[in-house]
Amino acid sequence: MSDITVRTLGLDEWDQYRSMRLTALEESPEAFVATHAEEEAEPEEFWRARMERSVRLLAERDGEPLGIASVGPGGEDEKAAQLFGLWVRPEARGSGVAAALVRAGAHVAAGQGRSQLLYWVGTENGRAVAFASGFGFRPTGTRRPMRVVSKDDGEEEIAMTLPLAGDRGGLGEY
Fold it and tell me: DSSP per residue over 73-118, as a string?
């Protein structure tokens, strides 16, 4: 099996991002705020504008798209970037694709001069919390109501942070 590669999509590759995003929305509707129907109806201009707002990462193996993630501003903290929209095709889960996307996201954020990478995780999503923790993300005291539709209206998300400079707890390079 060949290696996983992650690359930044260029502005003119909006259609590749659109295709993967729509696949993600269709396969995992519970993981996203938007719906497949809403975003499928959006015109080219919407997708081009979206490409300009954040860095879009595409994970591939032998040219086959396996997953996506985005890196954008971290909110009020100018030293932070945020990793969001992380999704991996079901058949590629557990094969290192998510970790490759997170590493690439950390590299992008560090290259932008950011000192930390934020990742919002549902407090009830043990698998996501364990993945983020294993990668080096640590919980912060910042929480917000869950932005996606959930069965439990009181469910929350917690901001987890990954330091991008200095001591990374022995995790080495991202």
Answer: E-TT-TTEEEEEEEEE-GGGTTTTHHHHHHHHHHHHHHHTT-SEEE
Tens of pLDDT, residues 139-167: 998 998 886 655 556 688 999 999 997 64
pLDDT, one tens digit per residue, over 11-45 is: 999 999 999 999 999 999 888 889 999 999 999 99
DSSP letter at 151 equals: S
Q: What is the pTM of this model?
A: 0.89
Per 3-state DSSP, what percentage of the chain is helix, strand, and coil (rounded to 5)? 35, 30, 35
How many whole angstroms separate alpha carbon 168 and alpha carbon 10?
Answer: 30
Which residue, among 32, 31, 24, 20, has the nearest Cα to 125 in the 3D structure?
31
Encoding tokens for residue 163? 């330091």
